[in-house]
Every structure is written in structure tokens, then in C-alpha cells.
Amino acid sequence: MPSQPAIPPPLSSHLQPALFKGSLSLVTSVLGASANWIILRQIYAALKVTSGHQEESTAVILLSWLRGLDVWRDGARRLGLNLSPNGRITFIDALQSGLGLQDRGIGEFEEVVLKAITEAKATSARILLVLDGIDFLLAATETTVDDLLACILEFREHVYTIIVTASADYPLIQAQRSPLELDHAAFVMSMAHEANVFWGVRELDTGSARDVSGVLRITRGPAIERMEFMPGEDIEEKELLYCVAGDGGVRVFERGSSEGYLVLWQAPQQVPHTVQTLRYVAPEPQKNYKNLDWPVAVPSTSKSTPAHHAAILRLRFVNVHNWGEKAKRRKTTGTGRMRSMKLIPRKFKNGFQTGVPKGSKGPSTNA
Predict the structure, then answer these.
(1) Which of 147, 196, 232, 291 could lock 23 by a disulfide, CB 3.0 to 4.6 Å apart?
(2) Longest pairwise C-alpha distance within the chain
(3) What's the pLDDT tens digit per position in 330-356?
(4) Strand extents, DSSP E, the chain
(5) What is the pTM of this model?
(6) What is the percent of the chain where pLDDT is above 70?
(7) Pairing state of beta strands 23-29 and 197-202?
(8) Assign residue 24 a region: left if phi > 0, alpha if psi is -120 to 50, beta otherwise?
(9) Within a 10 A sphere around the Cβ of 183, how many other Cβ atoms?
């Protein structure tokens, strides 16, 4: 299981209000920042959180052109979601099955999706439809933007809520030179105007970082203002940082927050346990220095020397875990004036003679 809660605390107040009846959520990502982790959290919120407070059951239909079944199954398993054929999540591998890529084009894609919605309605009252990478049809087929928008509009009439993911890389959105770039930008901009909630995932503007995977921007869409009943008023626009761990857990935190790299998130739904800090340093074993056999080279201390001063002197001259290694270098021979040691070479040449030099007459005296 991941070390982080399934729904990060900063997103707990955004995921559930975004999944209201008739809503459309647009999730954009770039090449270096994938958005599959936020899709899995939205599915988790629809199945786990909603089912715990509502009597109506929820089913999920997930179509993906970008990622295969193994990728989604591994991520869902780490969150405790069942992606098997008999579960509440119906997965359709659109790329492997060639959905929308055959001769019939987008017509076949619309029939398959409507058939899956009809089958899901037999057992569930609420249908969550996820279209992952539907903009792939613009690049791989002759499908037009109007055809895609018409299909999505048709799906919204039969499902409870819908989530659409699309790429928002710079060449596809801002360059707009080739026909593909123009169609892609027109599709993303049209979906952004029709969306109730906009989730944007991108890389850090300052480059890569070890403890930050990217930036998540949450924005209230223009469609909320046009609705008579606006449950999206609870959605607060904010920009967050996130980090995807190796075990599938995701940490989400605000800029400048210390929780992002010092401690792990601990949610109320977790089993109470001690949360270990990331920068934890194991304490050194305690030793009784009073019972150590001190070497003979320990500096002498008189009765007037306080006990704690004597202990400090012992630690400075005894190598206990290399304690005071720098202090030894600061006080070793050659760090001072060496008023006595600098005379030793001359005395050595003269044989360390003592007394009055031979032949000296001594000081003269006046009678």
C-alpha cells in the first residue's frame, strides 16, 4: 500500500465538489508531467467517498488512448480499486482495440461508449465517464473538432459526470502553425470554456527537483457561472506542488510549506501509527564515559577545575567517535607563534649547549 493517503488532504475539498451532476472536468498535462494519478484519485473519490454518503451506487467507464490496462490496473490496485471485468470500473483499451481508428471512424467510438453506458445503467444509477487522451483522434484520424465536441455533448446527456484529459504542451497550444496544432488548440480551448473545473498539470518552471514532480493548478471553469445550481462555489482556485513516490503515493502541498519535504502526510482515515520523518537520523548509542579507561595523555586537572570542564578536556583529547577532531587541528603544533619550538633547530646544531659560551669575557665593569 502507498505511504500516502489515497486522497491527499489539500485535494479533499476539491475532488468531491467537482463530481456533481452534469459536471465536466478538464484535465490537461504535458509530456514531462503525467495526469493519471489525478484521474485515479477522482475515480477513488467517486467510488469510495460518494458511495459512503449516498444510497445510489456509482459505476466508472474508463477509455484510454494513451495508457494500457497494466498501467491503470497497477495504479488502481495501490489505491484499493478493482479494475477487473466484474468490478465497478469498466476499462476499454481504445488504442489496442482501434476504437475510432477504423473505417467507421468516430461513429464506431460513439456506439461503443453508448453501449457501455447502457450496460452500466442496469446496475448503477450514477455513471462516471473518463475519456483519457481523446485528443489523440485529432492527430491519428480525420476527425474534426466539431465531431469530438458533438460526441462529448451526446455523452453528457447519458452520464452523471464526465472527465476529459488532453495534452497542453507548448507546441500544441501556443505555436498554432500547422493544421494539427490549430485543431488541437481549438479543441482544448472549447473544452475549457465548457468545463466546470479545470485541472492543469505541468512541470516546474524552474526545472526539475528531487522532492517535487510538478505543479497542479485548479481553476473554476466558466460553465459554473452559467448554472442555476452552482455546487462548484466551494471549489477554491489554487496552485499546488505534488510529488509522486515510487510506491504510488502522492504528496500534495502548497508552495513554501514545510510539510512537502519534512514529514509524511497523516490522514484521519489511516491506521494510527508513528509517522517517520524523511530526514530522520538515528541517535548514537549512549555510553558511560565515566567508566572508560582514559589514556595517560589526558590533560591534568587540578582541584579548582570544575567537573564539567574536566570532562570536556577529556573528550577533547580522547578519540570517542572522533569527537573534537576539528578542535584538535585548531590547537595542534604549528597553529600558534611557536616561540620555543622555532629555536629547536638552532639548538640542535649547537648540540644543546648550556651555560656561558666558551671564550666569552662576560660584561665589562667600570672600576
Answers:
(1) 196
(2) 137
(3) 888 888 899 999 999 999 998 888 888
(4) 23-29, 58-64, 89-93, 126-132, 161-167, 197-202, 214-220, 238-244, 250-253
(5) 0.66
(6) 73
(7) parallel
(8) beta
(9) 19
